Amino acid sequence: MLRALPCALIALLTGSVSAAEITTIPDAAVKQAIALRDQALKDGQAYALLESLTTEVGPRLAGGVNDEKARNWAIAQFKQLGFDKVWSEPVTFPKWVRRSESASLVAPFPQPLAVTALGYSPATPKGGVTAPIVMFNSLDALKAAKRDDVKGKIVFVSARMKPHRDGHDYGIGSPIRSRGPAIAAELGAAAYVLRSAGTDSHRLPHTGVTQWKEGGPRIPAAAVSNPDADLIEAALRRGSVQLKLQLDCGIEGDYTGANVIGEITGSEKPDEVVIMGGHLDSWDLGTGAIDDGAGVSIGMAAGALIGHLPQAPRRSIRVVAFANEEAGLYGGKAYAAAHKQEVSKHVLGSESDFGSDRIWRLSASVKPESLPAIDKMMQVLAPLGVERGMGAGNGGPDLSPIHAEGMAALSLTNDGTRYFDYHHTADDTLDKVDPEQLAQNVAVYVSWAYMAAQADGDFGSAPGAFKQNGDDD
Amino acid sequence: MLRALPCALIALLTGSVSAAEITTIPDAAVKQAIALRDQALKDGQAYALLESLTTEVGPRLAGGVNDEKARNWAIAQFKQLGFDKVWSEPVTFPKWVRRSESASLVAPFPQPLAVTALGYSPATPKGGVTAPIVMFNSLDALKAAKRDDVKGKIVFVSARMKPHRDGHDYGIGSPIRSRGPAIAAELGAAAYVLRSAGTDSHRLPHTGVTQWKEGGPRIPAAAVSNPDADLIEAALRRGSVQLKLQLDCGIEGDYTGANVIGEITGSEKPDEVVIMGGHLDSWDLGTGAIDDGAGVSIGMAAGALIGHLPQAPRRSIRVVAFANEEAGLYGGKAYAAAHKQEVSKHVLGSESDFGSDRIWRLSASVKPESLPAIDKMMQVLAPLGVERGMGAGNGGPDLSPIHAEGMAALSLTNDGTRYFDYHHTADDTLDKVDPEQLAQNVAVYVSWAYMAAQADGDFGSAPGAFKQNGDDD
């Protein structure tokens, strides 16, 4: 399999690919996709779904009080939107609970801090952990630390993320949050605190998952808000600083939730599916509007628009509301495990999980012979402001496991400039979603999904087909 | 006393005021003021003071754990900055304490809410108050409500504030917060909740003081953040909504704090003072950077620049770090009560208490014969972007009581566009202060204060001189 457009062009131009193998989109399908696109831009369905989910369900921590309620909401919505098959597939994971959290500088300048525990963090001992802070500016600096400088202290890693359209500074913040705690634990730290992996300046810390080595040491891990991190740094410029951290949280056995799936059955090839969606779980601090109620709502609304056509699509349209993405892609992995035998039947897929600001880029991991079909999609998407990305797409977090099994995938990149202002904070609420940009997202999804469902030919899905591909997001 | 420039011009032009009565600024003083202004723009003193106060003291709830610490900080800073007289004057007030606070929608859609108790709110009974919400869109609508529609319910007043350069929508939000609770209590409400008096969209509610009738009923009163208010409204659109409010807070007897005062003694007329400053207390949620660490730092830094001149000013420069502005101008009222016999000696005054974004307007409450001196000040201030306001100035919150006694006053209006994003929230932290704009503030204060100290003639301060004046801020 070839990754990028130039290779495909070479293959086509040199005649090494025969015309019969080329995937195309019928003109009638392009015309219909344009009509769907324009309808979607005027359609308030996705926003109504998102308003309903955030109001009537709210925060959706995987395994938490609203897990089942959210699944029931999704089942009801799929049915009401006219999806003709609606079912659930079980997903099991260790259930993490947050009970309470607080932190303060205790010396030399006592001040409360805005703090939040990280997912899968253990609790502090009763009474909390009080210890001197040792600060690092990067994960590499922490890795290079001597055990004697870290042992018994609270490791504080402070690196700033800047906003970018493609959100690439999350590549700095995310590993500091997810991998830093285990590294600090190995070095004997008493606890771990990071400057939030976020681009805002509000007293709302960013939570997120941590990754631990099986059988390795675990320590309490938390994030402070950016202004609190500034304060800690200001205090440290004056000398030694003692921090107190109190976290009551931890794992409470296993929980079985589910991926909730709705399908519009195809008229010609019902066993072949075009797949989209988002994850139904969210962190508990906000109501999960941008992460990822938006993705679920976009998928549902796009699927419904196709479902309401007088003529069913040739292939099936499958929308998945994934379980527990946040704590480690549990829903996406369960889906891939359950469906890997049918990977060839997963014609093309893309999950929305980067908010719902304007989509500006399409990146494709498809076989070169299908690039003319992607070009056709681009003709429909370009008026929406979508550019062709030259890298490969992994289909988004929850579809990356089945993409790794061989499903052809698109990555549709939102404008992420303000995404990390709100991501994983209490501020992830409905008011952060712009209805007009959300509708642009639905227009993008309905367009490519419909054209994929109507395509003459496939996009290269086959067992192991995209093993070489990375993700350029 | 005449309020506005045209009247003064008429008086001067018609010759009804003799030249001998006209207040002027000597040319040498104008020249020196320009040098001080330009020095201030390059001076980092105010920012260093503010960084010190927010880092080493932090939140400064009046009567709270940091009240005395903040006063000691101010005394030490005044001395270190070379103020030759430093003293405290006692201020006594009812001490209000915040212990804990939480709220949630309990039916039909259980969700936690971001809430904060309002100053002087009583606690809820143990176990909290749970009751249906009755919503009003304005204070007038609440005032017009029937007792039967309110009794036993939780009153929710939801009005949005928009950002403006002069912050005038606080004229909507402030009375809803301060006066609404007493009105709801008179109508038999169980509790009172408002949409935060703020212009932001963050899950950080805005606290602030409440006003109660002596001997009248009091009910628990709190603010929810703007996104939480949106959620309550969305739930109410679907029907009846039950809210649970738990506040542990209340008055714990009286506390005696102090106004902390630093003075640069005048060389010719030491008993005549030019007065400026800010309030040292803050709400407890943030570190009180914009409200009002900035004002204290601006006054201290401006005073210090004058104090470091080789030649002392003719009149004294007095900088006051006022006690407990937030709960009801206790410091400002105590100052006026202690000094009203000397009101004629308070030549001119202005407090900074609207953040430290760029000052764009000067409004004056002075005698008409001193308007030529104000014009001279404007020549020095105009290059800083300051316009002449046509309304009257009351000298800022803590100087308004002594202004009401007869002190001539300036109001220097900051750009308040983003002030109510942070005001009275956990987000009032140092990162919200722009060092460059803060320096512009110091440049404004040092300029007018120096010229007032050097003026030939006065600005009209006399017992009862400004009784007619309101405030155009």
UniProtKB/TrEMBL annotation, chains A, B:
Keywords: Carboxypeptidase, Endoplasmic reticulum, Glycoprotein, Golgi apparatus, Hydrolase, Lysosome, Metal-binding, Metalloprotease, Protease, Secreted, Signal, Zinc, Zymogen. One of its GO terms (molecular function) is carboxypeptidase activity. GO terms for biological process: proteolysis. SUPFAM superfamilies: Zn-dependent exopeptidases. It comes from the Bacteria. Residues 259-444 form the Peptidase M28 domain. It holds the Pfam family Peptidase_M28. One of its GO terms (cellular component) is lysosome. The keyword Signal applies. InterPro entries: CPQ, Peptidase_M28. The keyword Glycoprotein applies. It is found in: Endoplasmic reticulum; Golgi apparatus; Lysosome; Secreted. Residues 1-19 form the signal peptide. Homodimer. The monomeric form is inactive while the homodimer is active. This is Carboxypeptidase Q. It comes from Tahibacter aquaticus.
